[in-house]
Specification:
By secondary structure, the chain is α/β, with parallel strands linked by helices. Strand 2, helix 2 and strand 3 form a beta-alpha-beta unit. It is globular and about 50 Å long. The chain starts with a strand and ends in a 9-residue tail after the last helix.
Length: 272
Amino acid sequence: MLPTFVIIGAMKCGTTSLHYYLAQHPEVCMPQKKETDFFIAQINYGRGPAWYESLFAHPAKACGEASPNYAKTWHFPGVPERMHALLPEARLIYVVRDPVERMVSQYKHFYASGLEHRPLNAALEPAPGECDQTPYFFDSCYHRNLLAFLDRYPLERVLVLSAEDLQTDRETTLRRVFEFVGVDPGFQSPKFERQWHVSDNKFTTRKTLLNRILSRKWLSALRRGVSRSIRPLAPPECQLDAGLRTRLMDRLAPEMREFRRLTGEPFSGWCV
């Protein structure tokens, strides 16, 4: 069975939690491994449709997957075209979050994974002479990243959710999700109380030599093979500079204005 819906992103917006909430529903099939990344040419597309279909173990009323890399259309072009060629009737779920807070959370995630070693402000502020934006910034450009999918899928087949609603009003938000994918909206589970992959939980409170070594970028692969109980310290500078925050908000303002216009959602609690 091929997916009837796909969670396309964005990164650090609760897609892991949403994947597992959906997996609890008896009428939904989700793959055991989140993030198949199948429609990304550089990752798994070469494995072919038969491999992709094999990830969905049992027939269900609704079948889906969650790969936040799909929304990185600035970095992985061609995803919407490949997805539509195989899943022309799929419904898409795009989970978003206050764009500046999302950038900070993504930074913490990369730092904890050993993929980032710079202080927060250095990572989020482009270096002189470089492009005016960073990869962190582009992942928060929700409007342009969603537009790439709207060239293939009509807006009525896209559900845009805020991570804030998933956090603070989970029951109502999951009801919307279940209705959207076509399963019993009244289903509830005690496992809906849990959150997955909270970035602030990925750091220890005690610095060790091993933590320092494993947080180095060139040893990230080694770190992934080490027990999850070993976490690097949070970087020493993890407060966003007020001036940088203002600059990011100014740069994101046009993007967020268009995103609100497109979706009709107010996202009233966001900083921009």
